[in-house]
Write a sequence for this structure.
């Protein structure tokens, strides 16, 4: 029975990694849609369709992993450390699913921003890169059982929050300069907000990775000297 449990836990790890990679793909696709200036409608349509398809895959993977978790819980009677891993995964897939949703929301907003160059005037690309890095680090932390990487995710959240505040200020300034940009600027603000939420979900995932390792949710950050 223990051998079978180990096999299923390994499969669980693999499926969660696959779901995390799909989330990375969804984020990258949504950012590609946001900054693509091609006038080729077919090309742009394919970019949006790919993000939608990836979101569907994420939803499907969530159901697969949930079913595998329930099978382990009901049939294998895992011990405490294994139970922590399974319960943590059940929490993580919920956050990964939301990341997929928000990447899709960004791609949808990108359709309304295709005719503007406002994306080049604010630091949205840098914020997107930071958020995507946090998701990647979550996966690495889980694979390598690495608490230090979990801490890095928490630290990066402060960076993303600061970027959001900066972008919000830049957008307000753009609107003040030209009211005609108002609608596009609001779409950009929503895009930044979705990226901030992706970062928040990455923090949640890192917290559950920490729980799976230590039995305590979240990480303690070292206090910096004053």
């Amino acid at each position: 029975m223990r051998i079978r449990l180990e096999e299923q836990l390994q499969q669980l790890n693999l499926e969660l990694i696959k779901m995390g990679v799909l989330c990375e793909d969804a984020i990258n696709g949504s950012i590609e849609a946001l900054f693509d200036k091609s006038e080729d409608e077919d090309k742009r349509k394919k970019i949006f369709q790919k993000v939608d398809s990836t979101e569907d895959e994420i939803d499907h993977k969530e159901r697969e992993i949930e079913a595998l978790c329930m099978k382990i819980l009901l049939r294998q009677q895992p011990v405490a450390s294994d139970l922590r891993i399974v319960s943590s995964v059940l929490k993580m897939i919920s956050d990964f699913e939301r990341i997929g949703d928000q990447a899709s929301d960004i791609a949808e907003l990108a359709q309304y921003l295709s005719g503007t160059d406002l994306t080049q005037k604010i630091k949205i690309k840098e914020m997107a890169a930071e958020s995507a890095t946090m998701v990647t680090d979550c996966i690495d932390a889980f694979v390598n059982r690495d608490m230090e990487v979990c801490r890095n995710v928490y630290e990066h959240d402060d960076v993303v929050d600061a970027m959001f505040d900066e972008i919000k200020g830049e957008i307000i300034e753009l609107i003040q300069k030209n009211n005609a940009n108002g609608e596009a600027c609001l779409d950009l603000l929503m895009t930044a907000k979705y990226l901030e939420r992706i970062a928040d979900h990455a923090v949640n995932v890192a917290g559950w990775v920490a729980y799976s390792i230590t039995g305590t949710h979240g990480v303690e950050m070292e206090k910096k000297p004053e």
DSSP finds six helices and no strands in the chain. Residues 110 and 196 are 17 Å apart (CA to CA). The chain has a mean pLDDT of 88.
